[in-house]
UniProtKB/TrEMBL annotation:
Name recorded for this polypeptide: Glycerol-3-phosphate dehydrogenase [NAD(P)+]
Record-linked NCBIfam families: PRK00094.1-2, PRK00094.1-4
Gene this chain is encoded by: gpsA
Domain of life: Bacteria
PROSITE patterns on file: NAD_G3PDH (PS00957)
Chain segments annotated as coiled-coil in the UniProt record: none
Binding positions for NADPH per the UniProt entry: W20, R42, Y59, K112, A144, R260, V284, E286
Length: 341
């Protein structure tokens, strides 16, 4: 049990025991002050080890897991809960959610990516796979190891069900070190999280090539302009993208080797191929799957997104990093601001 919705406690679970799912289970257990949080792990042996050792040795080895978290590899056990946080990587959301019985529940989407096979954002995927669910998006500057350690941060909680849904979810999720802020802009929240991963790869490349801190700051600002362009075209709001789930997370991920996406870019900038940089990794760098489909969507929708296009080119391995950067720097000069619509 966890949180309260009027008189009845909200029973909550987390789908996906990677680093972020495990850290979110920790945050929920702290918010519940003694209630149980069910954590679904795809790997049965991992679920057993979490329960026995209180450590997720595969995805978040540094954290001691709160006593209130119970792991299971039986997805059906989560089927009856009132609220689920979906934290499997974007490419697997559809298949995992489809295995849950479809019934009215709050489903909080926490993956940051675009489905590569379809170009769908996470809420579109979930709407089809779990039509009875009430959707929300949780996104912001949140390195899993820091959240698991109880260090403070703040996130956007964008609720498709407006204030009524927020009133149910916020007490279930919030604690002094984990502060959700209300929004009803689901599209803006999911686009911020998906695009910042692609821009983090680009910033890693700049670091790997040794292009300096000025270049990285310029890239963050021009990358943010691309995020805004895509987000506004999809119906997201500028104020959402300038908040925790957009600019907040962009600044975090573009400036730290704790980011898997930044680290992937760093390796590309240092001359490694994407295949080499990604091989043998059990952890996910979502930007690697999102960049090609994002570049494709931008092209089809006539949106100018040169940084996203460059990251996609680098990942496909058709040109060395230095050439891709040189092409970007030789583009025609333009006005900094978008022309008014
Ligand atoms: N790690 C973070 O700091 C962090 C923070 C915020 C958001 N996120 C987002 O959360 C999502 C999950 O990332 P993570 O860091 O928890 O993952 P992770 O890299 O720690 O672990 C990989 C996860 O993928 C799962 N997986 C692998 N193959 C699968 C399959 N075929 N079907 C279903 N699941 C499969 C594994 O079981 C594991 O849970 C991503 O979208 C990521 O961008 C991560
Ligand atoms: O390690 P990354 O690049 O997946 O980033 C993790 C989180 O999204 C940061 O908010």
């Amino acid at each position: 049990m966890n949180g309260t919705s009027g008189a009845r406690p909200v029973r909550v679970g987390v789908v996906g025991a990677g680093a972020w799912g495990t850290a979110l289970a920790q945050a929920l257990a702290r918010a519940s002050k003694g209630g149980e949080v069910l954590l679904w792990a795809r790997e049965a042996a991992l679920a057993e080890r979490i329960n026995q050792t209180r450590v997720n040795d595969l995805y978040l080895p540094g954290a001691t897991i709160e006593p209130g978290v119970r792991a299971t590899s039986d997805l059906a056990q989560l089927g009856e809960l009132d609220a689920l946080l979906a934290v499997v990587p974007a490419q697997f959301l559809a298949s995992v959610i489809a295995d849950l019985p479809d019934r009215p529940r709050d489903l909080v989407l926490c993956a940051k990516g675009i489905e590569a096979t379809s170009g769908r954002l996470m809420a579109d995927v979930a709407r089809e796979a779990a039509p009875a669910s009430r959707l929300a998006v949780l996104s912001g500057p949140t390195f899993a190891h820091e959240v698991a350690a109880g260090l403070p941060t703040a996130v956007t909680l964008a609720c498709s069900g407006g204030r009524e849904q927020w009133d149910r979810l916020a007490p279930t999720i919030a604690s002094p070190a984990f502060r959700p802020y209300y929004s009803d802009d689901v599209i803006g929240a999911e686009i911020g999280g998906a695009i910042k991963n692609v821009l983090a790869i680009a910033c890693g490349v700049v670091e790997g090539l040794g292009l300096g801190q000025n270049a990285r700051a310029a890239l963050i600002a021009r990358g943010y302009a691309e995020m805004l362009r895509f987000g506004l075209a999809r119906g997201g709001r500028a104020e959402t993208l300038s908040g925790l789930c957009g600019l907040g997370d962009l600044v975090l991920t573009c400036s730290s080797t704790s980011s898997r996406n930044f680290s992937l870019g760093l390796a590309l900038g240092q001359g490694m191929s994407a295949a080499q940089a990604l091989s043998g990794k059990s952890s996910v760098a979502e930007g690697a799957a999102t960049a090609p489909i994002l570049a494709d969507l931008a092209r089809r929708e006539g949106l100018d997104m040169p940084i996203a296009q460059a990251v996609a080119r680098l990942l496909e391995g058709s040109a060395p990093a230095r050439d891709v950067v040189s092409d970007i720097l030789s583009r025609p000069l333009r006005a900094e601001q978008e022309p008014a619509a």
